TrEMBL record:
Keywords: Cell membrane, Membrane, Transmembrane, Transmembrane helix
Subcellular location: Cell membrane
Residue stretches spanning the membrane: 23-48, 54-75, 107-124, 130-153, 174-197, 270-291, 312-336, 348-367, 379-399, 405-425
Protein name: Polysaccharide biosynthesis protein
Topology within the bilayer: Multi-pass membrane protein
Amino acid sequence: MKVAVQNLPLPSKYAKIIEWGKLITITGSAQLIIQVIGFLSAIIVIRLLPTKEYALYTLANTMLGTMILLADGGVSTGVMSQGGKIWMDREKLGLVIATGLDLRKKLAIGSLLVAVPILLYLLLHHGASWLMASLITLSLIPAFFMSLSGTLLEVAPKLKQDIAPLQKIQVGTNVLRLILVGLTIFSFPWAYIAVLASGLPQIWANLQLRKSSYKYARFDQPADPLITKEILSFVKKILPGAIYYCASGQITIWLISIFGSTTAVAQVGALGRLVMVLGLFNVLFSTLISPRFARLANDKRILLGNYIKIQIVLFALMALIITIVWLFPAPILWILGPAYANLKNEMVLNIAGSCVALIAGSSFSLYTHRGWAIKPIILIPLSIAAIAVSASLIDISTLHGILLLNIYVAGFEAIMHVLFSLIMINKIKVKTHGITE
């Protein structure tokens, strides 16, 4: 006799596994497409730009990242931290995002005033004419301003874990970027054209993000003075560290651009494109892990358990990536073209340094999304001391030496951020049945 089987609710453990499986599948598959398209765009630029032009392109892209980081100054992290507390309320979440957008506009001016003279100096130092240096600098402006609002407009969908629309927008943006790069770089192999073609699609992306974000946050409101004060208090804690990371996060490029040759700058930039595979993990982390960690209850056991699981998984994945690159360097370097075929050891060192930096960055992201920050008076002197000691032991005028320095610095930062995360979590009291122990 056949028995009718009724649809019973799954145990919470299996429901969570299914939920995470769906999220990772949606995000992972979309990010795989995004990374492949982005990688194709990068390879087109590497292969078609002359070595000197690619060196200038590398400097411009590095400075763009620095400008965005300076203009953010911890605002996006502060918005995520504040938003994680009231993410169910559309009005309040919108007010937090509107305040963040207002703050970023003000910080953007200061970022431009600091970054533009430095970029012009470096471009001229590596042989660009005043006209070319000016065109490259101007080509950064659209990408700079669009990226500033783009990351804040993603906060609401990330907190709500409405991931699919974000992935569609990112796929569309990268397709547009590939088309623009493909149409322009063949006929105009100049650095400023490549920079402009890469940045313009972000305008379309922001228009789509506004529509997606507005469903969960009504951000067409004036900035709130009280929220401004709260975010700024967090920014004051994190800004000195953010300024430091502008330098240390791209220390490879900065040092090689000052002490090395133009060819070495191009080589570092080309190797950096191979690290794009790690972008998949970065996006998965910032989309799925950090927002959920920000939402967790302030309970020591819950936070510590989740934190340790995250770090174990990250460490295993990074070890696997380094092993694959070490075993198969030649086929991977073939992608970059013959000009970079002799960089086998350097490629392994570059990937290793990037993997360690990703582990450091994950801890930094997790604890800042909880509203925690290392005191700059501790962070910066220790980090500078680590760089100074490492640099005194290595020949930083060579590409090999610069990449070794990158590993040492990233390793120090990883240890520091992991220890700080554990210390902060350990300070939280355990809750049992609603009672704090």
